[in-house]
Design a protein that fits this description.
InterPro entries: Carboxypeptidase_A_C_sf, Class_I_gatase-like, LdcA_N, Peptidase_S66_N, Peptidase_S66C, S66_fam. Keywords: Carboxypeptidase, Hydrolase, Protease, Serine protease. Belongs to the peptidase S66 family. It holds the Pfam family Peptidase_S66. The chain is α/β, with parallel strands linked by helices and 289 residues long. It has 2 domains: 139 residues, Rossmann fold, CATH 3.40.50; 118 residues, Glucose Oxidase, domain 1, CATH 3.50.30. Helices cover 28% and strands 19% of the residues. The strands form 2 sheets. It has a 6-stranded mixed β-sheet with strand order 2-1-3-4-5-10, with helices on both faces. Strand 1, helix 1 and strand 2 form a beta-alpha-beta unit. The relative contact order is 0.15.
Length: 289
C-alpha cells in the first residue's frame, strides 16, 4: 500500500540536512524562499559541517537525518545537495518512527538512494526536485513545481519533445531518479520493483559508454521489459572521449528500449538542469503527451 505524507501548510516545520556531500556555499536565499512560503526552516548540523568531501562523517550525517526522521513536528526533510554519500548511511537509518509519521523527503541526484529506499521498503512517496544548493540557478517554474508538490497543488509539465519520442499516454506509478544510483541499488534493500511502473532517468558527467553499460545492466536485470513508460530527463556534462562512442545519450537509450511497445519521452525537464521540475516518486498518475 502506497503512503502519501501529509501535504504542507503554512506554519509547518521543515528541516534542511546534507546526507551526502558538503555545501560549498551558503543557502540563505533558499531558506528565505521557504520562509516566504510560510514555512519554518530548521537547519541541520550537517549544513555547516565537512569531512573531506562529505557534510560531516558518516556518523554525523546519519545522526542528523535520523533526528529529523524521528521528530513528528517536522513535516519535510530537504536535502541541501546531492554529490555522494547516501549509500554509505542508508542502512544505518532507523525508519520505524518515520513509517508511523511519514513526511516528505526531497532531493535528487545522490538522494535517489533515499527516495528509492523508502518506496521499496515502506511504500512511502517522496519528491524528486530542486535542492537548496541548486536554487540560485533554478528556473521559477522548477521552484514553483517544488512548492506545488509539497503543498499538494497541480503540477503542469511543458517540454519540447524529441523526434525519438514514441508517443502515447502513460498510466502507472512513477519511480526513478539518477541512472547511476538506480543501477547501484540493484540487489540491495533499496531496489525498487519496476514492473508496471513509469520509470524516469537522468544523469550527469557520465561517458556515453557508461550510459550504454548501465542501460544494458537494467535490461539484463529485467527492469525495462515490463514498464508502462519511460521518461528521459537531462544527460549532460558528458566528458570528452579520445575515441567517440558514436551515439548521443538519447540514441543510446532508444537503442536499448526500442523493441518494447510502451511510450518513451525524451527531453523531459528532470535532472541536473536549471529547469529541474519536481515529480512525486511513488505517485500513481496519468501522463499525456
Amino acid at each position: 500500500m502506497i503512503k502519501q505524507p501529509a501535504y504542507l501548510k503554512k506554519g509547518d516545520k521543515i528541516a534542511i540536512v546534507c546526507p551526502a556531500s558538503k555545501l560549498p556555499r551558503g543557502i540563505d536565499s533558499a531558506v528565505q524562499l521557504f520562509e516566504s512560503w510560510g514555512l519554518e526552516v530548521i537547519i541541520g548540523k550537517t549544513v555547516h559541517a565537512e569531512h573531506h568531501q562529505f557534510a560531516g562523517d558518516d556518523v554525523l550525517r546519519t545522526e542528523d537525518i535520523q533526528f529529523f526522521l524521528d521528530d513528528p513536528t517536522v513535516k519535510a526533510i530537504i536535502a541541501g545537495r546531492g554529490g555522494y554519500g547516501c549509500i554509505r548511511i542508508v542502512d544505518d537509518l532507523d525508519f520505524s518512527t518515520f513509517v508511523e509519521y511519514p513526511k516528505w523527503l526531497v532531493g535528487f541526484s545522490d538522494i535517489t538512494v533515499l527516495l528509492c529506499h523508502i518506496y521499496a521498503q515502506y511504500g512511502i512517496q517522496s519528491i524528486h526536485g530542486q535542492m537548496p544548493y541548486t536554487f540560485n540557478e533554478a528556473t521559477p517554474e522548477s521552484l514553483a513545481s517544488l512548492k506545488a508538490a509539497l503543498f499538494g497543488e497541480e503540477i503542469r509539465y511543458d517540454y519540447h519533445p524529441s523526434p525519438l519520442n514514441r508517443e502515447g499516454y502513460m498510466q502507472g506509478i512513477l519511480i526513478g531518479g539518477n541512472l547511476t544510483l538506480l543501477v547501484m541499488t540493484i540487489g540491495s534493500a533499496s531496489e525498487v520493483d519496476y514492473e508496471d511502473k513509469i520509470l524516469f532517468i537522468e544523469d550527469i558527467g557520465e561517458r556515453p559508454a557508461a550510459i550504454d553499460r548501465m542501460m544494458h545492466m537494467l535490461k539484463r536485470a529485467g527492469k525495462l521489459n515490463k514498464l508502462k513508460g519511460l521518461i528521459v530527463g537531462a544527460f549532460n556534462e558528458l566528458p570528452e572521449e579520445k575515441i567517440p562512442f558514436g551515439q548521443s545519450p538519447e540514441e543510446i537509450i532508444w537503442e536499448v528500449v526500442k523493441e518494447y511497445e510502451y511510450p518513451v519521452w525524451f527531453n523531459f525537464p528532470i535532472g541536473h538542469m536549471d529547469d529541474n521540475r519536481a515529480v512525486v516518486v511513488g505517485k500513481k498518475g496519468l501522463f499525456i503527451n
